[in-house]
Amino acid sequence: MKIVDTHTHIYLEDFNSDFDQMVQRAMDAGVERMLLPNIELSTWPALRKAVERYPSKLFPMIGLHPSSVKEGFEEQLSELKNLLNENLKEIVAIGETGIDLYWDVSTLDLQIQSFDQHIQWALEFGLPIVIHSRNAFEAIFKALEPYRARGLKGVFHCFTGTLKEAQWIVDFDFYLGIGGVLTYKKSELPEILPHLPKERIILETDAPYLSPIPYRGKRNEPAYMLHTLAKLAEVWKTTVSDAAEITYANSKKLFPKAWK
Ligand SMILES: [Zn+2]
Fold first, then answer.
1. Which residues bind a divalent metal cation 1 (predicted)?
2. Which of 31, 148, 233, 260 is most buried (most C-beta within 10 Å)?
């Protein structure tokens, strides 16, 4: 069985003490590839170093997380753009970007500008875009609408919205990234997912955050994806290996550069 963690921050210092063992546990669990979304300029060196250590397992993205968008973000963006050009061969996606109105509403205008810049990069370089959306579907849909049918591809990572929002995403030709939240008692995802095409679902951990049950509240890591996968198989009324096969194929389709 092969699976892909399409969104994991294992380059963060949370993993400094057991990085190699954690990667080994992921491989033992069948996690064949891990895709690493960037957070801000300062996190790039550690991300880059992790990818260099396991170049056939770990794949870099580049972007500025919406919660890191502050006054003066344009300078960060222009430096990130330089890094994108320098590392274009390896970079498999633009992200993470998006809009987060949970932590800070005061930067909404700046977040919209930054998000739009990331969309431009995705179109310019033909790369998929990885979107973080928190309390912000309306703003994100509004920002994306002008780009409908322009060939933009991407994923709403850690999707936890309503069925209506999910359907908008599918109609827009995007994917939904499903993580540990699926295993939580109060999650509405088990009710929503059966109404969505299986071809649009990919799996992720968002490690070190959002651990699935039974690790909720503890540090998350890619090996724990098996719990999310098992829950997805249950929701889809299929086998674990079938759910793995489908989500693996979907991941490969959205992020083809991670297979080159
Ligand atoms: Zn993330």
1. 7, 9, 96, 206
2. 31
Distance 9 CA to ligand 1 centre (A): 7
Q: 173: CA distance to ligand 1 center in Å?
A: 21
CATH superfamily, domain at 3-259 = Metal-dependent hydrolases (3.20.20.140)
CA of 7 to the centre of ligand 1 (A): 6
Distance 158 CA to ligand 1 centre (A): 8
**Chain segment 88-114, per-residue pLDDT in tens:** 999 999 999 999 999 899 999 999 999
The sheet with strand 93-100 has its strands ordered as: 3-5, 31-36, 58-62, 93-100, 129-134, 154-156, 175-178, 201-203
The CA 242 to ligand 1 mean position distance, Å, reads: 26
Q: Mind listing the pLDDT tens digit for each residue in 167-219? A: 999 999 999 999 999 999 999 999 999 999 999 999 999 999 999 999 999 99
Residues 6+ apart with CB under 8 A from 189: 159, 160, 178, 181, 182, 235
Delimit the domains of the chain by residue range: 3-259
- Binding-site annotation, residues for a divalent metal cation: 7, 9, 96, 132, 157, 206
- Nearest-Å Rg of the Cα atoms of the chain is 17
- Percent of the chain at pLDDT > 90 equals 98
End-to-end CA distance of the chain: 20
Q: How far is the CA of 157 from the centre of ligand 1 (A)?
A: 7
Angle of helix 137-144 relative to helix 163-171, nearest 10 degrees, comes to 20
CA 194 / ligand 1 centre spacing (Å): 25
